[in-house]
UniProtKB/TrEMBL annotation:
GO biological process: one example: maltodextrin transmembrane transport
Keyword Transport among record annotations: yes
Pfam families found in the cross-reference section: SBP_bac_1
Origin: domain of life: Bacteria
Gene Ontology molecular function, alphabetical: maltose binding
Key words, A-Z: Signal, Transport
Name the UniProt record assigns to this protein: ABC transporter substrate-binding protein
């Protein structure tokens, strides 16, 4: 008799548990998260972090969607059509425009003292502030650093990386035509050149958001690039050596030095395991340290139906625990100082120059209309680099055309 009762109780308990599970599943709130397509490693890691979040938050489900093409166009279209995700990636480059359009949820009211906002690197957090409101929390970042081939250096008797731009150009000349065809692999896009514009006191955009890179001080930094390419003939673009990126140029041994970001480290170690390389901070220009910083934040859609749950997701992903899981493998750098310290990236031989750069980096952000500024600069700067027109003429053309396009969009 006792056994029958025990079995009956077990069955009743099982059914109660099943109905409880069904009940909690049916009351679970689903948050839609969108991001662009990253590497397979990145996708796998994010899905794991999201699983951990769901395990700790049983009443919240995350529907993760990868937008594999034309990411920002898709997001903007969905925001207008009120079909955007609750939470999504936002690159610092695109942030000024979206923050000014009243379509993102300000996060100040959600941030508690326990969240420890002061733990974030200021340079990164500032990229997502607009009119005293915080609209995004940076999930990771990369600066740029000098990557150099140790065997190539040893072959010409160089033991230490260059520390000034003059020294860097001399190194490039010494290294050209030896183990490598060229000393340096140049990437002429504005995303890699803006800190050179700043080195002599210039700026890419003025306080009104218009292009302003064609004045004399701005041109001084860019002239260094042109002189190295045309006069020294010690640098090459990816198209000159038949490769698709700076990292590939370097990995294939076409160039002895490149300036790249953290993403190059896993790429080089996996794709070109035979190459022996080291990193260093970018050589100073005009006695000033300089680099770029690229960062991406999680932001909340102002139209999100479940804002408290959307915040739970953002705060987990950018909190200390979630961020450590996300950046622990080293393919991304943590935006929280405490996490970087815990993971030891400031002591990592390859990553420490990238971490050091965040304090003086130029954020990759060029006003509300970045495409107009970027596209015009890139087209005309390459033309000047190839000697098709003088640098000043090229930059004036780029500046005038960019500002014409910006005025038409305002």
């Amino acid at each position: 008799m006792g056994l029958i009762i025990a079995i009956a109780i077990t069955i009743i308990g099982y059914h109660n548990l099943q109905s409880l599970n069904k009940s909690s599943a049916s009351t679970a709130v689903t948050i839609k998260l969108s991001g662009w397509e990253g590497s397979r490693v990145e996708q796998k890691l994010l899905r794991q972090v999201l699983q951990d979040f769901e395990a700790q938050h049983p009443t919240i489900k995350v529907k993760y969607e990868v937008i594999s093409d034309q990411y920002m166009d898709v997001i903007k279209t969905r925001l207008v059509g009120e079909a955007a995700p609750d939470v999504f990636y936002l690159d610092a480059l695109e942030a000024p425009f979206l923050m000014s359009q009243n379509i993102l949820e300000p996060l100040n009211a959600y941030i508690t003292p326990e969240f420890d906002l002061a733990d974030f690197e200021n340079t990164l957090l500032d990229s997502f502030k607009y009119q005293n409101e915080i609209y995004g929390l940076p999930k990771d970042y990369s600066t740029l650093a000098l990557f150099y081939n140790k065997k190539a250096f040893a072959a010409v008797g160089l033991s230490n990386p260059p520390t000034t731009w003059d020294e860097f150009r001399k190194y490039s000349q010494q290294l050209t035509g030896k183990l490598n065809r060229y000393g340096f692999g140049e990437t002429p896009e504005l995303a890699r050149q803006a800190y050179k514009v700043k080195a002599f006191g210039g700026q890419v955009v003025d306080q009104n958001g218009y292009a302003s890179f064609a004045n004399e001080v701005a041109l001084q930094g860019l002239q260094l690039v042109v002189d190295q390419y045309q006069k020294d003939r010690s640098s090459a673009q990816k198209s000159d050596v038949g490769t698709s990126s700076g990292s590939e140029m370097f990995g294939q041994g076409k160039v002895a030095m490149v300036i790249e970001g953290n993403w190059a480290i896993p790429y080089l170690t996996e794709t070109f395991p035979q190459i022996e390389f080291a990193t260093a901070e970018i050589p100073t220009i005009n006695n000033k340290k300089g680099t770029m910083v690229f960062t991406v934040a999680y932001v909340m859609n102002k139209q999100a139906q479940h804002k408290a749950e959307a915040w739970e997701l953002i705060s987990y992903l950018t909190g200390k625990e979630g961020m450590q899981k996300w950046t622990g493998t080293g393919f991304a750098l943590p935006t929280r100082k405490s996490v970087a310290e815990k993971l030891g990236y400031d002591q990592d031989p390859l990553r420490s120059p990238l971490v050091a750069g965040v304090n003086y980096a130029t954020p990759w952000q060029v006003g509300k209309y970045p495409a107009a500024i970027m596209n015009n600069f890139d087209n005309q700067f390459v033309s000047a680099l190839l000697g098709q027109q003088p640098l000043k003429q090229a930059m004036l053309r780029a500046q005038n055309e960019a500002n014409k396009q910006i005025k038409a969009m305002e």
